[in-house]
IraD/Gp25-like domain-containing protein (Sphingomonas parva), 120 residues
Amino acid sequence: MEIDYPFAIDPRGRTATTDEADHVRDMIEQLLFTRPGERVNRPDFGAGVMHQVFAFASPEAATALEFTTRAALQRYLGDVIDVQKLEVTARDAAMEVEIHYLIRTTGERPVQTFVVGGTE
């Protein structure tokens, strides 16, 4: 059973669940958008992507973010996924993180894009 993120109640009044591919995507999202120091019992957990919301979006910042994000994904989700490609792009006032990965248990190869900052 995989609990859906963000936490929700399903129509039957139970904890909402999801499939494995969506659960893995949810774990990646949690890792990317958690700031190191935010979790009391795991102060080093997180990729620090949220720090880029107020940082200057530049190619140099994108490269640094790519390095730290890849390290965090390997450290915390390396047993669940194999990152095939990770690309961070600075666009205007936003950072776009595109991840191509392999889910080790199912062999699926999803591609997910996350955007930090900018105006929507």
